[in-house]
Amino acid sequence: MLRKLKWVFVLYLLGMAAHGGTVMATEGSMITSSTVSRGRFDEIDVQTGNGQAHQASIKMMGASDVYVISNTIAPGGQTGWHTHPGPSLITVQAGTVTAYDGDDPTCTPQVYQAGSGFIDPGDGHVHLLRNEGSVDAVTIAVQILPADAARRIDAPAPSHCPF
Description:
It is built from one helix and twelve strands; from the N terminus they run αββββββββββββ. It has one domain (28-154): Jelly Rolls (Sandwich). A hairpin with an 8-residue loop joins β7 (96-101) and β8. The strands form four sheets. Strands 1-4-11-6-9 form a five-stranded antiparallel beta sheet, with no helix packed on it. It is mainly beta. The chain starts with a helix and ends in a 9-residue tail after the last strand.
């Protein structure tokens, strides 16, 4: 009898180890995404401003795919935890989105209203967008990604965020 209990315990530990090593990605809900445009660029090295107050610099080595993505998130909807292999410039066209950063141990919400914008640096930055409002939220994202890379990489929910 004791021997059977030992085997049950060993099998239980093996099962827990196997399950503990499985990381579950989160899926989005009540979100519709569409690709507005996609273009392939060779290396880019652009600088503007010539010393004036407004300056811009973009330098990309190697080929890149540039996407324009439209996302509509219904009230109560969310993107699921994810990252991108490159940066995204995101503008809020309608409604309000609430962003959560996977690296923030307090899971502090950052609220962005229509007409505002924010940057997702990509490159492993795990985040989630939620529509905590009562009307559809619409975002437009311009993504600069390595050529042929996956546009979105699902990620597990951080343990410190309750959703």
